[in-house]
Amino acid sequence: MAVLRQQPPSRRRLHPASPLCILFVLLSLLLSILSITSTIKSSTKIITTKPYNQPRPLNVDEIGNPYHNFGLFETDYEQMLNNLKIFVYPDIYGNSSSPFSNIFVPIPNPTNPKLGNYYSEHAFKSSLMRSSFVTMDPDRADLFFMPFSVNAMRNDRRLHSESSISDFVARYAGKIGSELGFWNKSGGADHFFVCCHSVGREAASKNWELRNNAIQVTCSSSYFQRFFLPHKDVALPQIWPRPEETLLNPPVAREKLVFFSGRVQNSRVRQDLLAMWENDGDMYINTLNQSLPYLEGFKRSRFCLHVKGYEVNTARVCDAIHYGCVPVIISNYYELPFANVLDWSKFAVIIRQEDISLLKKILLSISDNNYLEMYNNLNIIRKHFRWNEKPQRYDSFHMIIYQLWLRRNSHY
Fold first, then answer.
1. Predicted TM-score (pTM) of this structure
2. Domain boundaries, the chain
3. H-helix or E-strand containing 283?
4. CATH annotation of 251-383
């Protein structure tokens, strides 16, 4: 009997040019490409991956630099350098017949450490007289500087009281208005004066035009202060004459989370701060009787507190910037210097006075990467909070002049 063998099913051969064949080839190529791409990505990831606790490098384009718009600022700044002119009333050159010439002339040594809180007032005057902004022709002037010194008046027995100082300033404004006439063209809106003493807030109180029209460049820049108008007046940074710090203490050498040292008698906010955090081991918060020297605290801490005292301003903000310690500002209504140019949120922490109980929680919530970005931004903006014997580009003097430049046409 013959055995019948089962024949295998016949295989259909694909014609090379058939659509099904083309589709099969394309799918094969696509799968190959995807496989190769995946391998490359995997290899790259292995090469570039960093340990989880290593901070990523600062990417200014990603986080935003500490300026609102540096390009716009820089362009306008160059226009200022080339065009701004300031007339200084001649009292600044001294008048041997005047019994009050000491109130107007620059002091011989504006970098004297004894000037302390009032250094910025004198440094501005000295810097201005060394600059190219001064013109002897009042018809070319965009602005007029009244060179009286509130600090000098405060130290003069004849003019010590706030009432006497405001009387003197009111008489002076009336004198220049009647004798020279430049005041009358704008009602004083193109005139400015500079002060960093707390009594300066009342200096313009007895002359209506001086109080409401003239530009006040002041350290006591508080929204809550009745004679300070942010759109008209200028916040002056309160800077002590500190030695230059060219090399800042790196973050790894800053073992304390928080540092604050200062008197508490004249500030309820500071009293609350001390009551809540004095005994916290991560913070160094104490009165002036401290074991850690004041300047060392700024060098060895990550965050340094500026807490409202008698005024909204203290030199601690600029001390923190000077020594590379991220400022923590606890001072309601404080108009921060150069806030229309600098984005303070990129290099400082601002906390409401009512949130002191949350201080540690807020600071610990800042990641290492964000802290390093703030620290790097401090390095960028430090030059704006420094006075130089000879004014330099973008230093405190030029930043104040830029603020005046922005207000030069406010009377038109």
1. 0.81
2. 64-241+390-406, 251-383
3. strand 283-286
4. 3.40.50.2000
